[in-house]
Fold this protein.
Amino acid sequence: MFLINDKKEIVKHYKLIYVILFIICLMAYISSCFLPCYSTEHETVKGYYCLLGGWFCLFVDFWLFLIWCSNILFFCSLVAAIKHNIICVWLSLVSVMFSISMLFHRYIIYDITVPITNFHIGYFLWCASYLLLLIICIFGIIGNRKNHRGSPD
């Protein structure tokens, strides 16, 4: 273990960790788009299908539309996280809650009679990217406040 005594080194390490977490978060989100998200008795649905067709839920099931809106909140939170704006914490918290609530929705959007039989790695990676963004936002806000405080010496 090493000690960091210089404030510039602390800021450099903080920024490096922040960027690495940010890249992991984006990679998890992009990967979830190409992996299977859920399956029914007849098919397995990939993430890009959910992303591209989810807006249609506005006309079918408003709760699923809110779940899909978590994608918009995710990108708004990314922008706010880059600017270290406190709103990113609240946006990412709401998107995490909406994304996890999909576990309690048991039917697919285009046919209410077809139940979801299983959730796959794409869905869980999608939720994990949202959770990681929440951690990044909290880390960013706390780290930004600590790095901008005046030193007592």
The longest helix spans residues 7-34. The radius of gyration is 19 Å. The chain has six helices and three strands.
